[in-house]
Sequence to fold (407 residues):
Amino acid sequence: MIKILIVDDNDYDKTQGIVKLLKTFEEISDANIIEVKDTVSAKRVMKNEEIDLLILDIKIPITNGDDPDPEGGVKLLEDIHLDDRLKKPISIVGLSSIDDSYSKAEAVFKENLWKLLKFDRTSDNWKIGLKNKVQYLIDKKNENYPEIDIVIITALFDRELEAVLRLPCKWKELKIENDSTIYYKGLITNNNNKPLSILAASSSRMGMSASASLTTKICMTFRPKYIFMTGITAGIEGKCKLGDILIADPAWDWGNGKLTIDKEGTPVFKSSPNQINIKRKYKELLKKISVNRDYVDKIKNEWNGEESSEILSVHIGPVASGAVVLEDPFIAESIKNQHRDLLGIEMEIYGMMLATECLPDPQPVSIAFKSACDFADPNKNDKWQKYAAYTSASFVFNFIKDYIEVS
Fold:
């Protein structure tokens, strides 16, 4: 996504023509375009926003309500140079329909290697020049690690990431130089008709260390606003059914603590969990969604594999992470003692949530959605893994479309 500031005083048709052209790019929506009419308002925006492209009329007023200054645009460019409080745009395009203003600004634009276009309603030359500049900026952003709105990570490619890549997001493989991870970049248009860029990837191996490493790398490279984890987990029998979507709140490492010996010489594990919760705003929202039968019934009805006789449900509650795959009901029982409302046991969620908690601000919102595929006992098998991977990925897709907004 690139952010664009348009500074034009009162030529409505010209401004709307520019906006219409910009929105022919699927990477640009209304949320990416800021319109102001004077230099004071433009500087106010540039104090707070990182602008990729400044589109500037040359004849603009200094303050809203003033008469247009024939050199108002040039004066704004001088202020951008001199005022350290302003965040300098990456690129600047001047656009003028007045011959005199165009001539006065021409030297300034040439000296600074900026682009100055002659606006003419009878010609498409200005449109071609502006389109080329916008496309160049989009290509450069994609080249230099594009900023991503939303990331979905999984522990496994097989089943888990495969389910994500079946979502209708126009996925394209994205390779980053000197990075062994293969990324998939896509696009989701939410229900407010705003495009959201999305990235998907799987860890190199299972476990908290791998998920923490992948999370940190992705967040530092692509700077997402949201990072979600989908996939499969062992559920706690009686708390959920196979295929049910478990939203981890809180998550913790069930193996964190101290192994000691009691007075009788018996090994005793004293747990010391650090629990991480999701943000309250999203917990309350997900609570509301979890009781909406239409939401989950639609997901179940669209499943094309072996039918489950169980009603699909969503549960929000404790999910513990650990370093081993569990098939021992006695160990599972001991983990349940760490939280009586335990919903599931898996190997990656805490790594992701701890990694995001340790990132510098602004930290992305991180939430894990995993679906139960077995009950962590010796009778576990792979029968419901594809279904569980599908339900978690589909739930996240619908959640993004219906509820995620990115400014």
The domain at 4-143 is CATH 3.40.50.2300 (Rossmann fold).
